[in-house]
């Protein structure tokens, strides 16, 4: 279960954080790959379903849920979406790397 906690960050951050919290790093990387691909594949469908039209919102969502793969997908939407995707990817990476080991340590 701990291996799933790092699924929404990039692989290098996942490796370090998984080691810090005692999770299986190989399994964590598998979850990262699956999350990235599913987010990039179904993100645009969800945006259409929910009628999300703002490129910034689309990019931020893709960066949050599907990290580098989502950022690459955001480039296909627009440069604005890609910028917000990169911002979100960085923010969630820092947040997970700093706070997840603290939270797991408290449990």
Automatic annotation (TrEMBL):
Pfam families: LrgB (PF04172)
InterPro entries, sorted: CidB/LrgB (IPR007300)
Main location: membrane
Annotated localization: Membrane
Residue ranges crossing the lipid bilayer per the database entry: 25-47, 81-106
Record GO cellular component, one term: membrane
Membrane topology: Multi-pass membrane protein
Keyword set, alphabetical order: Membrane, Transmembrane, Transmembrane helix
KW NADP (keyword) present: no
Listed PANTHER family: PLASTIDAL GLYCOLATE_GLYCERATE TRANSLOCATOR 1, CHLOROPLASTIC, PUTATIVE SEROTONIN TRANSPORTER
Name the record gives this protein: LrgB family protein
Gene source species: Sulfurospirillum cavolei
């Amino acid at each position: 279960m701990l291996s799933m906690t790092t699924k929404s960050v990039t692989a290098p951050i996942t490796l370090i954080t998984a080691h810090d919290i005692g999770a299986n790093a190989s399994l964590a990387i598998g979850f990262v790959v699956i999350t990235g691909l599913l987010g990039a594949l179904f993100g645009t469908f969800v945006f259409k379903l929910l009628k999300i039209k703002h490129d910034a919102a689309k990019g931020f969502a893709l960066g949050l849920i599907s990290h580098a793969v989502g950022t690459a997908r955001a480039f296909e939407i627009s440069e604005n979406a890609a910028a917000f995707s990169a911002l979100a990817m960085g923010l969630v990476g820092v947040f997970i790397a700093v706070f997840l080991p603290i939270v797991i340590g408290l449990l």
